[in-house]
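Budget justification aside, the reviewers requested a transparent look at the raw inputs and outputs of the sequence design task funded under Objective 1. We therefore reproduce one unedited record. The lines immediately below are the structure tokens for a 224-residue chain.
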């Protein structure tokens, strides 16, 4: 669905640097396993976007792949191709709508990860799922969080994925990197988060919308 505004051109209304970053020691594999085995009592900060479609809601899943490098944990993300009907060109997790053959939300996430980026289930250790996030486009999305152990290979489906890249989890789990924006669309106020990431060679990735919201919920889960 084409946007009527450029999210990167909107002013920054606030930065959440008053919130503490997650301790890096809690972002390692064993700490993450413990958190999912004994989850805290918590409430997602953002659960439902304002709807701007009349189509029937559709269940979907995304994989939140946490890559366990020796020195750092990263999040594997994709940039969608520009011609897709839903969320073209945006940064997202690998994932998609549920199919009748999927036995549950985890099965959907694993199937979609293999179809979209060629990530085989043998490299994936599922930790658990976060509460659903409902997008303005009518998708009820289950984020499935998993550890990915290198070495592994990925191969983007050129129809859906323009690029695959990784962002340090510590960067995304620091609210000092979470920016707030707002825009009026057709008389309705829409507010969203962004987490812009710039690489050492100055490549820029604007993480925003549903992906940023689900990452913010993951922050709340780890911070609880």
């Amino acid at each position: 669905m084409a946007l009527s505004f450029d999210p990167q051109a909107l002013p920054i209304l606030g930065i959440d640097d008053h919130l503490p970053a997650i301790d890096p020691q809690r972002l390692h594999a064993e700490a993450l396993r413990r958190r999912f085995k004994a989850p805290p009592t918590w409430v997602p900060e953002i659960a439902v976007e304002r709807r701007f479609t009349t189509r029937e809601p559709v269940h979907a899943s995304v994989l939140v792949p946490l890559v366990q490098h020796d020195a750092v944990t990263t999040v594997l993300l994709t940039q969608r191709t520009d011609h897709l009907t839903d969320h073209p060109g945006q940064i997202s997790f690998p994932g998609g709508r549920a199919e009748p053959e999927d036995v549950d939300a985890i099965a959907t996430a694993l199937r979609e990860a293999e179809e979209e980026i060629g990530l085989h289930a043998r490299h994936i250790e599922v930790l658990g799922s976060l509460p659903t996030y409902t997008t303005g486009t009518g998708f009820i999305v289950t984020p499935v969080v998993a550890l990915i152990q290198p070495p592994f290979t990925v191969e983007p489906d050129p129809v859906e994925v323009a690029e695959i890249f990784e962002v340090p989890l510590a960067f995304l789990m620091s609210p000092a990197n979470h920016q707030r924006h707002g825009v009026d669309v057709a008389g309705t106020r829409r507010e969203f988060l962004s987490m812009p990431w710039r690489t050492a060679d100055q490549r820029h990735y604007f993480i925003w919308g549903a992906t940023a919201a689900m990452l913010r919920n993951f922050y709340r889960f780890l911070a609880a």
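The first strand starts at residue 14 and ends at 15. The CA atoms of residues 159 and 175 lie 33 Å apart. Computational costs for records of this kind are itemized in the attached budget.
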